[in-house]
Amino acid sequence: MAYTSGKHAKFISDRSGVAYPYSERIKEWNGAIVHISEYEAKHPQLEPNVVGDDPQALKEARPDRTEPAVIRLLRPNCFKSGTAGSAVITITEPSHGRSTDDAVRFRKVMGFDGFTKAKLELSSGYVITVLDENSYTITVSGETATTGGIRGGGEHATAGQGTATPSVASTFDATNITLDSATKTFDEG
Predict the structure, then answer these.
(1) CA distance to 74, 90, 159, per residue, from 77 (Å)
(2) Range of 22's domain?
């Protein structure tokens, strides 16, 4: 179908109701036919840009964690036996950061002054007593120093986390304990 040019035709604006030349009409986004002087573009908030999903995770993220205890290489011959007949050994480990009653396990230790390699490398380790920030002591059960005051342990000894637990001393004499059947309690006496 062919349309005429309408050079003398008029149209009525849907916005103002005024007659304008047909060639100066324009159609708005809402379908209204208006004069070009009355034209209003669609407000940008009516057609927002598509943003997409909010990111919820990081690619290959790793959670924060507490670092596990690591095995530390000790200085050469950092073990020192106590006096002759003593089971106490002093270990020098600069800036060890350990506390009394921590468990420490030694590996790659050489026997010295009456202490055997097997006893020094006890699988559960030893409960330590801290002397200062650079040294602590252990007590080796079943073995004692033969000479005393001797340094040893070898060139490649390491210290790591042990599983030994401090011993708890008994606070009562178990031979004098009786069960009170009326109150269902133990009496000492």
Answers:
(1) 8, 11, 13
(2) 10-40
**Count of domains for the chain:** 2
Per the structure block, which two tokens stand in for 54?
A: 């909010």
pTM for the whole structure = 0.56
pLDDT at 189: 57
> Does any domain span residue 157?
yes
Span 130-154, pLDDT tens digits: 999 999 999 999 999 999 999 999 9
The reply to whether 2 falls in a domain is no
Q: Looking at the structure, do residues 76 and 35 belong to the same domain, yes or no?
A: no
Residue 142 belongs to some domain of the structure: yes
Residue with tokens 């801290």: 130
Contacts for 48 with CB less than 8 Å, ≥ 6 apart: none
Please, which residues have CB within 8 angstroms of residue 12's CB and are 6 or more apart in sequence? Answer: 18, 19
Lowest mean per-residue pLDDT among 6-15, 40-49, 100-109, 115-124: 40-49
